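Predict the 3D structure for this chain.
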Amino acid sequence: MQLDFSDLRELLIFNIKYYRYKNNYSQERLAELSKLSPRYITDIERGLHCPTIPKLEIIAKSLNIEPYELFVNPKRDINILNKIKNSRQYNQK
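Done. Predicted structure below.
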């Protein structure tokens, strides 16, 4: 399933969350792996912070993907989408 996004920032935010779920990482685990604060990861996923290029590289490496994958919109695994949709964090703004 392919999703529509209004802008690149929205796609970036979603992809960080999507690949975090795909790796079965909590926000705390991603923060630990990327050596960033859990609050910073939360704020990125809520759209409150936009990470710099060096931080995006670190996050991508922690998610076991190439940095460019944070900016592409491939077909998605419906099971992961449902998991995100049903999570408490997805519904917060």
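The mean pLDDT is 91.
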